[in-house]
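#onboarding

Welcome to the new folks! Below is a worked example of what a typical request in this channel looks like: someone posts a single protein sequence, and someone else replies with the predicted structure as tokens. Don't worry about understanding the tokens yet, we'll cover that in week two.

Example request:
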Amino acid sequence: MSHFNFKSLAFYGTAIGSVVILFKIVTVYGQNLKAPFPIDGRYRITAQNLPECLQSDDLILNIQQSGIYLNGSLLALSKNVEMPNSASTSETIVQPKPSLVGRWKNQQLTLSGSVNKLSSCNNKVNLSIQANVNQQTMNGQMTLNSTTQPVKFTAQRESNEQQQKKQASH
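Example response:
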């Protein structure tokens, strides 16, 4: 009596061959993938025609990145106040929970959400940002509340050296 059955051998041969072919396809596809350019960090926004409640403050866009997915916070700081660095080991600084979500694709980011804690604005602000990022500079437009016209802005990324100097001054 033979333990080898032709149907069993054909089934196992097909199963193993399918797995090998699938592995080869996934490996070839994975070798062509590239990680997205890192854009996480703090960007100091410069804009004209901001609403009155934001004209007296410096606007900081804080972006956190995980692949193509983005989270962000818009912070309004008095023009005379230095921005704290959250990486401080000597003291704990509470950062606001990111209220903006979006994506990063083809050198363009989109973020949207509502911002509750802008120091000068009394109401919750619905915010939508679309921008192109070239190395350390962001150019785009933001819409504050759905009824206002888009505001064009430029934002410069703060380098790690700038953040470390601000941390040392505290």
